[in-house]
Amino acid sequence: MSKDNASSESATNPAAKLWGGRFSEATDAFVERFTASVTFDQRMALEDIQGSLAHAQMLSEVGVLTADEFQQIADGLKGIAAEIEAGEFPWSVQLEDVHMNIEARLTDRIGATGKKLHTGRSRNDQVATDIRLWLRGRIDRIAAELTRLQSGLVALAEREADTIMPGFTHLQSAQPVTFGHHLLAWNEMLSRDYGRLMDCRKRVNRSPLGAAALAGTSYPINRARTAELLGFDAPTENSLDSVSDRDFAIEFCAFAALLLTHLSRASEELVLWTSSQFDFIDLPDRFCTGSSIMPQKKNPDVPELVRGKTGRVNGHLVALLTLMKSQPLAYNKDNQEDKEPLFDAADTALDCLRAFADMVPALKAKKDNMLAAAAKGFSTATDLADYLVRKGVAFRDAHEIVGQSVSFAIEQQKDLAELSLAQLQQFSDQIGEDVFEVLTLEGSVAARDHIGGTAPNQVRAACARAKELLAER
To answer: How far is CA 344 from CA 251, 356, 382, in A?
Structure first.
């Protein structure tokens, strides 16, 4: 049946619908458009065919289909897959969704045998299977891109293990760290994201096929076999839950929201660091754009867009939570609204990861600017307090002494390291010549020589551990 014929017949003959036997009048034209999902769920077409092939093979193995019928169905479905991949498939809104479009096309191609494919299943378990297959594939692509980003990030951190920069709290200069150490903080966020993604994949990888509409089927199906054929770990346990569960989609969107939140935090820092006020790093031109009116501008559009896209992914999570919050068991038409948020969340996460994975290894640190910034803001004040504690001064007394020293240095418009020994000693006679060793930025960074610390040798060790973990994936 051609697309035009399908449109014309379904508008005048309710029986032309694959479910139309019970109806006496055609679907209202607006309702037909309003309820159709084929414009967006057709992107699951190859997964739908994959699921149908497994279902048909199982039906032939249990004797519901003959070997010849299975072969006809398999050949027909493979031909349809070729049409879809070539962009030649005649999609029809009148056929509502991806499933009915493919089933109708199969019957066009192979005749009455095509009508047997749907034996023992429903669109309810069919769509639940398709979504899981589609999402599993996207999870694997996202995991690969996340690993690529982390690999580039760790390699950059190792190169910048000695590069000193200011560490901030409240966006105020706090203590000196290294650029490598800072980058490894991003990597820790992404490592947790990867763990959440893999945990989500375990719950995605269950087969609802065979749950049928809601209660299972009376045919002698083998759900373990279809699960095996489709690469699922096992069938789902309860038919009601199988067709109505969208927890896995919500869980994925929660992962995506956290991932984008982490990328957004990194983006915010990149935007700050590329500004003339910080001038800590340089982004290659290929990741930036210019201004239509200000010729001097070089705008960090990639991190800005990633930061902006976080809002839409967060919105998708809320949309799916809201979608599911009031649904009675089992399947409801509401669930048609699960796909567009899920699809866009996955697409956005993948695109943002790709942008970051391409961009991060190309970052150039402006080391002199970072070092100069770290020298400002009395970032070694804590080191002076620690020095006094090691001399026997109680920490609270040391804290007060250093506070007074900083106040004096501000009046003198100098950093602590620029004060003379005599000037420092007016606040404590415990201060000796060796104090200047702890007031240097290099000394401050090197003193944090423990796991998780900023000492360059600890940063390199952390990079080595991170590389080992990445290699195990």
So the answer is: 15, 18, 47
Are the CB atoms for 431 and 425 separated by under 8 Å?
yes
Q: How many residues does the chain have?
A: 473
Place of tokens 């991949």: 85
List the catalytic residue out of 2, 275, 291, 420: 291
291 tagged catalytic: yes
Q: Report whether 276 contacts 282 (CB < 8 A).
A: no
Helix (H, G, I), strand (E, B) or coil at 207: strand
Domains, the chain, in order of start with CATH, read: 29-116 (1.10.275.10), 123-372 (1.20.200.10), 378-472 (1.10.40.30)
Q: How far apart are CA 57 and CA 60, in angstroms?
A: 5
pLDDT per residue as tens digits for the range 153-209: 999 999 999 999 999 999 998 899 999 999 999 999 999 999 999 999 999 999 999
Tens-place pLDDT, residues 23-73: 667 778 888 888 899 999 999 999 999 999 999 999 999 999 999 999 999
Calpha distance 208→435 (Å, rounded): 69
What does the mean pLDDT of the chain come to? 92
Q: Out of 170, 218, 292, 326, pick the active-site residue.
A: 170
Exposed/middle/buried for residue 157 (C-beta within 10 Å: 0-12, 13-18, 19+) = buried
Told to judge if 182 belongs to the known catalytic residues of this protein, a careful annotator would answer no
Q: Judge whether 124 and 145 are in contact, CB under 8 Å.
A: no
In this prediction the pTM is: 0.90
Burial of 305 (0-12, 13-18, 19+ CB in 10 A): middle
Whether 118 shows a pLDDT value over 80: the answer reads: yes
Helix, strand, coil % in the chain, rounded to nearest 5: 70, 5, 25
Return the closest-CA partner of residue 168 out of 311, 301, 265: 265
**Phi and psi torsions of 263, nearest 5°:** -65, -35
